[in-house]
Amino acid sequence: TNKQLYHKTNHQDNGKAATRLISPHFQTWRFTCALKLFVPVSPGGERRVTGWVLKRDETEAVRKTSREVPSGDGQEATGKDLSLKSPALPGGKYRRFSLALVFPSKFMASVPQMMETERHQFRIWLVLPLLLPLTIIPVSSFQGRLPVSSRFSLSQNWIVDRLRKPHHAKGESDLLNLKQREVEFILHPSISSIPAEEWDRCGNQGGPFTSHAWLLSLEESECASPKTGWIPQHLELKVEKKFSSFLPMYIKGHSLGEFIFDNGWADAAHRNGIQYYPKLLVGVPFTPVTGERILLHPHILQTYLKEEISELRSLTARFLKQIALSNKISSVHLNFITAEEASDISGPIPEPKETSEEDKLKGRVQSMLDQLTYKDKNDYLRRTSMQYHWVNSNAKNSGKPYESFEDYLNAFKSKRRITIKRERRRVTEDAGIRVDAVVGEDILRCEGLVAKMFDIYSAQIKKMLYGRQYLTEDFFHMLTNTSFIENLCFMCARHADAGEELKAEDVFAGTVNIVKDGVFYGRYWGCLPGKEVKNLHFETCYWSAIEHCIKAGLSKMEPGAGGGDYKWARGFDPALIHSAHYICHPGLRRAVSQFIDFETENNVEVSKYLLSRSVVGRML
């Protein structure tokens, strides 16, 4: 307990025990604190419910009160499911403070041994480190029970009375009358508490990586868990009390596995004495793939107006902002969202105007002046990054798909085409290596292939100085034991003289990929030690993968983050990646805003430049 911040004095208040906490600054994540809970376990009789009411009086003190409540009044307080209800006090204005506790399962298993049976109560001392899954959320109302789910509603319902039309003819009304709708927000500490059918009804819009099977495998294999710094807090939006939408959300104590790199922001915050962790992340762990992150119910997408959907996304972002501000969380990050989501949350990308050199110089000067006279909007910042994607579109054939890999090579200039053929011959002919695509259920028919691909994945990470192994072998096996296996595609490299039948023991290099809705997502490459062959990486990750995409009629390939130069030279063109960020600290928010403005302007210009000089003549 931090004795400098907290001083307890016991006294009698209307015949009931109470505790006065002198300091009003309850900073959960800034220091270690202790919390004593008294929970009755005797059967029958009255049950005690501890209520928290924070009241600021003239001395800025914070009072804690408790009362006796009959069994049928309000929420019950149990050892494993603590739901604290704020009692109603007469007179004055009070701010209700709901305390949500989520205990580790190992801790709950030891609770019975801590009970003091003769006093019909037990005491629990909790030490709250940085990554303990404990959340304290001040809201206007609190419903439901914990830790199954934290249910609460904002004081503001989602109400849009009037909305201006973006374009209207002369004589038409400037206003649109939209329906009033109510939105309830529900937090889930694990995706296992959400039925797979309900989640996937919305999750298909975000691509394969927002599927229930993928996220559940990450949690159950402890790849994305409090143990690794990923505390699940998935958000459910219940619109009109019946249409549930979802967000994959986590509380994080680091920036690993995100691929929208904010390490520089964290370093700047640390140098200036600003706490950057924990932070709130909306996204998919270890996956740099764009897709919808606010997974709306199909009924909402089909029946709501575009303005209503935009307002719902905006409201969700404001709610996440409230969570951060209320819980001493430094920031909110929505990573790899779609361009439409980014515009609804943080506004459009500033479009650079085609001007003369003189106007460009004036624009740069004005940009510097704007930075000196920066006005904080206290809102989300839109960040624009860049990846490189391959598109199955032949610019020389009116944008139709390529008919063969040779057809694709014809899109390159002669010199580059010769270089690619030489690059492939060194692997396929000189080294005698073949690469096979193993898809879906065929993976299980090859005994031991899943374990071998994990060995290849982990071996590659161990060879890298800064490599980090995010996934475990349990994750690989869990994923292949679900319906998600239909989306898996292994590119397996082995020697050609091993025979036509693929055997796991013959595979020494390869990639783990995901295929869905006509898109090939390249994910994890690896090669066993001592088996490295020059250009094998390019053959497995790019050329054989592209050849498979053309044969399978896939429309696009996303090979992940990084590698801009050699990807662009092989026919992968730039694609803008969008994210939205809210920084609670105003000084840090200003610095990040100026950095993002420069970065976005640079990435937009580079993207346009490279697209105009695409090596495969991509149609714009």
Distance between the termini: 62 Å
Class from secondary-structure proportions: alpha+beta
Report the helical percentage.
25-40%
* Main pleated sheet: 11 strands, mixed
Poorly predicted spans: 1-177
Question: How much of the polypeptide forms β-strand, as a percent range?
Answer: 25-35%
Radius of gyration: 28 Å
Number of helices: 16
Shape: globular
The largest beta-sheet arranges its strands as 17-20-21-22-29-23-28-27-26-25-24
Count the E strands.
Answer: 29
Q: What is the average per-residue confidence, as pLDDT, rounded to a whole number? A: 75
Provide a descriptive summary of the structure in words:
By secondary structure, this protein is of the alpha+beta class. It is built from 16 helices and 29 strands. The strands form 7 sheets. Strands 17-20-21-22-29-23-28-27-26-25-24 form an 11-stranded mixed beta sheet. β9 and β10 (121-127) form a beta hairpin. α3 (212-220) runs antiparallel to α13 (473-480). The protein is globular and about 65 Å long. It starts with 7 loop residues before the first strand and ends in an 8-residue tail after the last helix. The model is unreliable at 1-177 (pLDDT under 50).
What can be said about this structure in brief?
This protein has 16 helices and 29 strands. The chain has 620 residues and is an alpha+beta fold.
Features:
11-stranded mixed beta sheet, 16 helices, 29% helix, 5-stranded antiparallel beta sheet, alpha+beta
